[in-house]
Amino acid sequence: MAVLVVMTGSWGAYRALTKSLCGQRIQVSIAVAPEIAPAVRETAAKAAGTELRLADRCVSVEVSASAPADVAAAVAGHHHSSLGGLGQAGGKTSVPDVWIPDSSMWLQRLRSGGSDWVPDDAPSVARSPVVLAMPEPAASALGWPNKKFTWTDLFPRLTSDIRLRTGIVEPSRDAAGLSGLLALAAAGEVTAGVTGRQTTVGTMRALAIGRSTLRDELISRFPRSTDVATVAKSLSAAPLTEQAVIAYNARQPSVPLAALYVDPAPVPLDYPFAVMPGTSVDKATAASAILGLFAGDAYRNRLAAAGLRGDDGGIGAGFAAPKGAPALTAPVTAAPDPARVDTALATWSAITSPGRLLAVVDVSGSMLQAVPSAGGASREQVTVEAASRGLALFDDTWAAGLWIFSSQLDGATDYRELVPVAPLADQRQRLLNSLADVRPKPDGNTGLYDTTLAAYRAVQAGWDPSRVNSVVIMTDGKNDDATGLSLDQLVDELRKTMDPARPIEIIAIGIGNDISEAELKRITDTTGGGTFTAPDPAKIGDIFLKAIALRTSVKR
């Protein structure tokens, strides 16, 4: 009994002393990409109670493995918005105090929604190159591991070699997939003009055939046996991280994966340490102390055990480098231009998301105005060129139609149907020919509101549940039809016409400086969709791509 009393008293004294030494604890939540979670968790645990202190307070670290796409969706949702391709965040994912996604491209994409959604400064705490993963027999047939590969060399095989089955993890949800997509797009741009665009689109379509939403699902499609028939039916190539290849081969599969380090190297994953805006001063100070733990040999060795490199590309003890891996340290690769990321994702969306679209093009007299930045071409000409390029992205699963509008184009009617909405397989050339014949009406005004309502009703009449149904209106002016609907009347009629079971998005593209963005936005806010503006009409091609990527309302 005496011993028990002494022990109990000692424990109580220890607890009291500990509490007095720590004071109020600071709780810091860290959401990390799953592959780096073990290294982060072990590093934080080793420092608990010793290094992690602020004055008289101890820091408690809660590390959770969270898919970057889920946290990104939560961040956007916190700001009552969404990120293209992600949808809404699940109820189990919340915004942490510190976020370590696998790539700074997540932060870059979120900044496009709001500059204050994520921090400007987020230092790297690990690195993993993006490679082209292939079963070793397939890679050997191409000359691996002795041959140096370029994306330009690989283009013909990825697009036309029937023996290669290519795939990719959905780039809007996977940073390695996005990095690979950017590398392919950049290589396609080496060939200028129409041929270069066709090459890029062809490669993207080849990848899209074998795309997966989840990385584990894609990896499971690599061959599991050396049987010739199995190899022939399995996945042959996909952009993945070096870490994913190392982790796969660690399981000693019958057919190991080769990692092809293709030149120019895709943007590597850099695992940024992001202290999220809104985090309290105490937690932010504690986070700075936590960041200091991710250095030194012990931490680098933990990264090596997970198949990851240090932030400078160097490796720790036990790192299982794939054959042909580059030198121990690699130069830091600059983050991609945000505009390139937007364009790549928009092109991917246009290629992979089947749509049913009615394009409605302004042919009022103001569309004759010359665009100095487009070599003197008219607003109409640059608009038609953008629509024609967009059409080239759509495969035969799409359905599309074409209207023009001004004022009194057909008697008192402000709009005219040139091509009805129908599968592109049946009328692609007819659409291209009709676009080429579009001419502005020199004395025409802009009958925007009547046209918008009519176009919405036309798409609704043939609504297709298997496709994203949308109206894309391209205009350079405000509604100036005095005898037609007012904006209030248009909004009221749209609300009466809309059917939640048959969603249709209106996407408005405003060209030049004479539009009323507020009026267009009121229309698109009513129906769903979005308003995009191109103050410089020469930029309408990029705007058109972004607008197409916005489409989200496919009913499943």
Provide a compact summary of the structure.
The chain starts with a helix and ends in a 7-residue tail after the last helix.
List the helices and strands and how they pair.
Layout lengths: L1 H21 L3 E7 L4 H11 L5 E2 L2 E9 L2 H11 L19 E3 L3 H8 L18 E6 H6 L9 H10 L7 E2 L5 H14 L4 H17 L1 E2 L2 H5 L8 H6 L4 E4 H9 L6 E4 L13 E2 L5 H11 L5 H9 L32 H15 L2 E8 L16 H15 L5 E12 L2 E11 H13 L11 H14 L6 E8 L11 H11 L7 E7 L5 H11 L1 E6 L5 H10 L7
Parallel strand pairs: 1-3, 1-4, 6-7, 11-12, 11-14, 14-15, 15-16
Antiparallel strand pairs: 2-3, 4-10, 5-8, 5-9, 12-13
Main attributes?
556 residues, alpha/beta, D-Maltodextrin-Binding Protein, domain 2, Rossmann fold, 3 domains, six-stranded mixed sheet, five-stranded mixed sheet, 20 helices, 16 strands, 41% helix, 17% strand, globular, disordered N terminus, disordered C terminus
Describe this protein's structure.
There is one protein chain. With 556 residues, the chain is an alpha/beta fold. It has helices at 2-22, 37-47, 68-78, 104-111, 136-141, 151-160, 175-188, 193-209, 215-219, 228-233, 242-250, 281-291, 297-305, 338-352, 379-393, 424-436, 448-461, 487-497, 517-527, 540-549; strands at 26-32, 53-54, 57-65, 98-100, 130-135, 168-169, 211-212, 238-241, 257-260, 274-275, 355-362, 399-410, 413-423, 468-475, 505-511, 529-534. The strands form 4 sheets. It has a 6-stranded mixed β-sheet, sandwiched between helices. The chain has a 5-stranded mixed β-sheet with strand order 2-3-1-4-10. The longest helix is centred in the N-terminal third of the chain and has 21 residues, at 2-22. It is globular. The chain starts with a helix and ends in a 7-residue tail after the last helix.
